[in-house]
Structure formats: C-alpha cells, structure tokens
Amino acid sequence: MEIKARVPGMVEALKVKVGDEVKKMDVLLVLEAMKMQQNIPSPVDGEVTEINVEEGDRVKAGQVLLVVE
C-alpha cells in the first residue's frame, strides 16, 4: 500500500527503515506542514518495502512517501 502525503510539507523524521515490520497505526514518519507536526501512521499491518523520501525533503500533496506491503 502506498502511503502518500495528504498535504505539502517537509519530512521532519523517518521512524522506519526498509524491512521493518509495522502494525496498523504505528508512526512511519513525521511531516511538518504549516508549522505543525503530523504523525503519518501505517494504515495496515505489514513490512516497509520502499522509502521514497529522506529527512529534510520537501514533498507535495499526493506524493508517495513510502510503501507498506
């Protein structure tokens, strides 16, 4: 499942790496948008198979941040 940015912002912190097992609602990364930090949770149980951003990256709304399968 692709995890996408809901709003434009900056990746404040990555909380996982490729190969990590995650549970539904585990925080995957922190996105700063409009001077507010938003925790981005996993919508499913699974394994992180792809990370498309790094800390400090600016992202657009709809951009794929990472993939959990």
Explain this structure to me?
- It is a single chain.
- With 69 residues, the chain is mainly β.
- The protein has one domain: OB fold (Dihydrolipoamide Acetyltransferase, E2P).
- It contains no helices and eight strands.
- Strands 1-8-6-3 form a four-stranded antiparallel sheet, with no helix packed on it.
- Strand 4 and strand 5 form a beta hairpin.
- The radius of gyration is 11 Å and the shape is globular.
- The mean pLDDT is 97.
Can you give me a brief rundown of this structure?
Helices cover 0% and strands 54% of the residues. The chain is mostly beta strands.
Walk me through the topology.
Blueprint: E1 2-4, E2 9-14, E3 21-22, E4 27-33, E5 36-41, E6 46-51, E7 58-59, E8 64-68
Antiparallel strand pairs: 1-8, 2-4, 2-7, 3-6, 4-5, 6-8
Low-confidence stretches: none
Tally of individual helices: 0
Average pLDDT figure: 97
Main-sheet strand order equals 1-8-6-3
Distance between the termini: 6 Å
Overall shape: globular
Major sheet description: 4 strands, antiparallel
Number of domains: 1
Strand content: over 45%
